[in-house]
# Entry
Amino acid sequence: MLQKVVRSAVIDAPIERVWAVLRDFNSHDRWHSAIASSHIEGGERSDQVGCVRSFTLKDGHRIREQLLTLSDSEHKSTYCIVEASLPLQRYVATVSLKPVTDGNRTFWHWESSFATPPGMEHELRDTVAQGVYETGFEDLRRYLRGGADRRAPDGHAMPAALPVPTRRIAIERYGGPDELRAQDAEAAAPRAGELRIRQRAVGVNFIDVYLRRGWIPSMLPLSAGSPGVPGMEAAGGVLDVGAQVSGFLPGDRVAYLGPVPGAYCGVRCVPAEWVVRLPAAVEDDVAAALLLKGITADYLLHDLGRVQRGTRLLVHAAAGGVGLLVCAWAHRLGAVVIGTVSSEEKARVAREHGCEHVIVTRDYRFADAVQRTCGGADVVIDGLGDAAREENLAALARRGHWISLGQASGPLAPLAPDALVAKSLSFSRPVVFDYVSTQAQLAERAQRVWRALADGSIRQPPIERFALEAAAQAHARLESRATIGALVLLP
# Structure
């Protein structure tokens, strides 16, 4: 006769955090106190359906289990025992998670069915219910608390973390791409409130170029013996966490963006409030290419541009990292999307990403074409800077809004009010970090980006990948106006 064991618990962590642990079929020896050691056979991935984990319990019993199903959308997996020294026969188990309505906790349901030899029903049912399920709930709660509360498997406190050697790209003076030089460095242990991250992909953005040129010296100050390290975002895995950090654990896949540069390196400590966990479907290089640019597209379209069906939107550098995301997302919202690019190849890519009307120009002349196409733009998203100043004013429709996002052609001179009043125009100069000034805001906007990627509102842009030590080459490439999509550095 089949036995059935059902247990449930509420875990004080968001569902994504709990699932990040449980979807790893080989994670139990790191958090479940009944398990002494575990490995996946045949070198397969621990989230590969069909993989077999072989583990030893602390009481000496050995078990081999196979992963039968895994659903990231349903937060559910099933597995079975294929061989065991315990007499659990035809054992099949299901783990499923549901978010609690407050959004910060998770309902975990764990059940199994199995047969036993006569006379062992109660003993083996208690072993599964208490020794595996109930103990597992409590052990995972303890594990997820992380930070200073974490203990080694023998129960003793973990030793103090040591500095980790790394490579970084730094500048000692402002200037061209050749000022970017590789250096040996150390990433100190994380302080209270920090994570130490081994970075696997670093996003390259035009703000990095501005910092290197010295256009924002307050953000990247240089002094004798203290070079500056550019870079505002990266993705990778958590090495360790400082005190007073909860919700992150070593091995977690994460991405971050923050208002203090320093991302051009292999290992870095950052405040936990800059960090978001990555969905399983988003690779590290895609996260580094999308996080800052995707969040920028989100606030440009939804907060500043208020783009909706029929909005006439002009996007400069429409084939760039931000431009492609804005075009695709705006197209999904029903906007009339007009873009400027500098080549026919870029025009083709922009059209593939939802740019309905493409203007090919290398001399910053586009206003007449915009007026002929749609009668003027309701919103202009401009990263060109001063060279496009007069053309932007001429391209805008009455009551239009000019969003100045960057200054690739040079810093924008101050606008006199009279330049705007003729057509009742408005002007804004946003900074992405003010739209993610709390961890909650960052997590919410990041989740919107991942959802937009999953539902096709945006597409993964073309990504050019460079070794970390080729950062100078990446900058030169970005400034050449020849790039399409996003650039990332791979430490």
Remarks:
- Residues 309-429 form a domain with the Rossmann fold fold (CATH 3.40.50.720).
